[in-house]
Amino acid sequence: HPSNFKEGGDVLLNKANCRAKGGAPGFKVAILGAAGGIGQPLALLMKINPLVSVLHLYDVVNTPGVTADVSHMDTGAVVRGFLGQPQLDNALTGMDLVIIPAGVPRKPGMTRDDLFKINAGIVRTLCEGIARACPNAIVNLISNPVNSTVAIAAEVFKKAGTYDPKRLLGVTTLDVVRANTFVAEVLGVDPREVDVPVVGGHAGVTILPLLSQVKPPSSFTAEEAEYLTNRIQNGGTEVVEAKAGAGSATLSMAYAAAKFANSCLHGLKGEAGVVECAFVDSQVTELPFFATKVRLGRSGAEEIHQLGPLNEYERIGLEKAKSELAESIKKGVDFIKK
Ligand code: NAD
Ligand code: LMR
C-alpha cells in the first residue's frame, strides 16, 4: 500500500486498512482536488453519506491535514489521503465514483472559459489516471469550463480505449439548485417542493432553465421569466462578485456535488427512478454533449430524457445555448486531438 504522508500518515493508513477490511459494505469514492474550496466541504459531506465505505482524498497540496481532520468524524466511511501526482493511481484504484473539483476558480471579470488554459491540462492529467487505475468508475466532473472539460475527459478516455459515455457526467446540479431556490422565492413556496429542469450546459446563456416545465406546474409573467432566467444564468457570477477575488461558489457547490454524487450512488445500487440533470454525451440535439435530465442506474446515465415541449422564449434560448456550446465542446475536443 502507498505510504502517503511523511509524518503520521502511515499510522492513519494502517488503521484505515484494518477497518476497511471488516468495514460496512458500500461504495468507494475519490475526490480529486479534495483540499480546495469545494473539495473540503464535499469531503465532509461524502464522509457522512451512509452509502460510502471508503473515501479517498487526493490533491497536490494539503491533503494530510484535510484527511486527518475529516477522518475523525464518527461516521462509517474510512478516509485515506493521497498527496501529489505520484500517488494519483493509488488514490484511484478500486474506486466506484470519482468526483473532480480540481482546478482554478474565477475572479471577478473572468468567464469560465478564461479558466480553460489551466484547467484543461489538470483535467487531462486526472482523466489519464482514471483510464489507467479505475476505467469503470463513474466520473462526476465539476472543474470549469464544464462545457469543455467534459469533452476533454471523453477524448482522453477514447484515446485510452476506456470511454463509456454513460459513466462521464458533467455536474450541472448547482444550476438546478439555484433555479429551485430562485423560483421558490418568486412563487413564495418551500424550495424543496420545486423542481426546475435546467438544460444545455454550464456557462452563461448555455444554462437554460425550462420554466414552462417547473413542478409544481406554475405560470410566470414575461418579466418573471426574464428575471429568473437571467438570475439563474448569472448565479455563478453573482457569487464570484460577492466574494470579490476570493473565489467562486464553494459551499453551495459542495452541497450540489454531494446531492448529485448521492444520486449516482443510489443509481449504482440499482434503485429505480433516480433522475438528475447532467451534461452528458447525448443525441437530444445535434451537439455531442448536452445537459438534460438523465436516469441514473447501475451503469451511470442509463436513459437520457428528451427536452419536452418548449415555449417560444425557451426555443430562442435554446438556439443561443447551442451555438455557444458547440464552440466550447470543439475547444475541448481540439485540446486533446490537436
Ligand atoms: P480552489 O482553488 O479552492 O480548489 C481547487 C483545488 O484543486 C486546490 O486544492 C488545488 O490544489 C487543486 N488542484 C489543482 N491542480 C490539481 C491537480 N493537478 N490535481 C489535483 N488537484 C489539483 O477552487 P474551487 O473553488 O474548489 O473550484 C474548483 C473548480 O470547480 C474550479 O474550476 C471552479 O470553476 C469549478 N466550479 C464548478 C462548478 C460547477 O457548477 N460545475 C461550481 C463551482 C466551481
Ligand atoms: C458556478 O456556477 O458557481 C461555478 O461554475 C463557478 C463560477 O465560475 O461561476
From TrEMBL:
Instruction: Tell me the keywords, alphabetical order.
Output: NAD, Oxidoreductase, Transit peptide, Tricarboxylic acid cycle
Q: What is its EC number?
A: 1.1.1.37
Domain Lactate/malate dehydrogenase C-terminal, first and last residues per copy: 172-335
Positions contributing to NAD(+) binding: G33, A34, A35, G36, G37, I38, G39, D59, N119, I142, S143, N144, M253
Question: Catalysed reaction(s)?
Answer: (S)-malate + NAD(+) = oxaloacetate + NADH + H(+)
Which residues make up the binding site for substrate? R106, R112, N144, R178
Say which domain of life the source belongs to.
Eukaryota
Q: Which family does it belong to?
A: Belongs to the LDH/MDH superfamily. MDH type 1 family.
Q: How does it assemble?
A: Homodimer.
Name used for this protein in its record: Malate dehydrogenase
Q: Which organism is it from?
A: Cicer arietinum
